[in-house]
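Exercise 3.2. Students should predict the tertiary structure of the chain below and write it as structure tokens, then compare their answer with the key that follows.

Predict this chain's 3D structure.
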Amino acid sequence: MREGCGIAGIALTHEDAALPIFYALYAVQHRGQESAGIAVSTGEDFRAKGNGIGASAKDITLARGLGFVYEVFNKHRLESLKGNIGIGHVRYSTTGASREENAEPLLVNYRKGKIAIAHNGNLVNTGELRRELEREGRVFHSTTDTEVMAQLLANELVKHDPIDAIKELMKRVIGSYSLAILLNDTLIAVRDPLGIKPLCVAEIQDTENGGSSSGYIIASESPAIEMLGGTSIRDVKPGEVLMVKDGDLESHQLYRGRNTAHCVFEYIYFARPDSVLDGRLVYDVRRQIGERLAEESNVEADMVSPVPDSGITFAIGYAKRAKIDYLEGFIKNRYVGRTFIMPEASSRDIAVRLKLNAVRANVEGKRIVLVDDSIVRGTTSRKIVGYLKKKGAKEVHMRIGSPPIIAPCYLGIDTPTRDELLASKRSMDDIRKFLNVDSIGYLSMEGLIDSVGIDANNLCLGCLTEKYPVEIPGEVCVARQWKLTQF
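Answer key:
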């Protein structure tokens, strides 16, 4: 399971925004490792540069590239980004290949200035919208759905003020989107009407400089805010638009839905354990999942071991409820990135062995409950089980902190097709045989919903149920209702 992106935006009163954005991107690096970028508003006027654009239009400087945050930005590059308002992005490609022109933020010129936009999510009507814009003569420089949104927004900004323009944009796009937008010298945050992807906001104070600068920060996850000393953290509401200009924060609730559709895999896997999503600490949710898993499918064993790092919190909860010793069967090499940065099958095998080493002294002769968050294709899980058995494990019982993944995601997670998904067309016994485990146990849907603590009608469960919250050609839609609010 591969998350699409992480975003951040900062508006300060006095200090440059680039360095705090850099730190914030470090905090959400787990959401994407293919590219990183930062855009800042310089405060300089376009007219002074002979561009013939109105005096209110401000210049935007953009720096981006392929790789991790620390690979893209060094001290010199950060110091060149002068401006107290900016946005940042880390990317894993879901729509558009991993090329430098697809790195974000994307920068678009329009009649009244410049727009920089950073996007977490995925649109399902990108093709239709892109073809429409191309018929109008628009030229695209990337293959991403983010540029489609940027071009649509540019069209609307010529005719409307920013809030009305975003309202019109939200009428057109279908899918998931949390956005950080830099419009001239204004920071804007947008969360889609269903709240599929996370986004939070807080005040920030630059205490290192005697409290001389204050402002606001938005980010995909709360640790990015906490790391910078943000206070009064809250989630951006589904359908809400926040605008920070001249040090003031404005809220506009453009859409209000009867239900939300928060991505359940944020709680299972994507978000950091120390994140607070929609009022819930992810660590607590995962520990509760582990306890529920032990209640539903306990087995006699000598030890409970996680698949690090994704299975750790689940395994802690499982071991506590089952009253079985928690012991690490694997030690992780933390100098190796996530295995999906090596897409070829042979490279993935090497990457797994580089990342995880089974500890013979801990596993030899033991009956092991091996706990992980989910199983996608199953090939990595099978290798991991094989490593345990080669090191002398007597039995391996696999327990999974989610129901079986039986369908692809279209809303911002890069998942395989149904034919590639292990659980899509196999029985539990076939899955057990494929993984070469002594038993297999998945969390029930009821156990998942209870552990997350959000009603099923307010979650996106498409990859687990084959029922999606938006219209997707060829799929079943469980429609979520929302309407435009008056403001």
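Discussion points: The chain has a mean pLDDT of 90. The first helix runs from residue 18 to 27.
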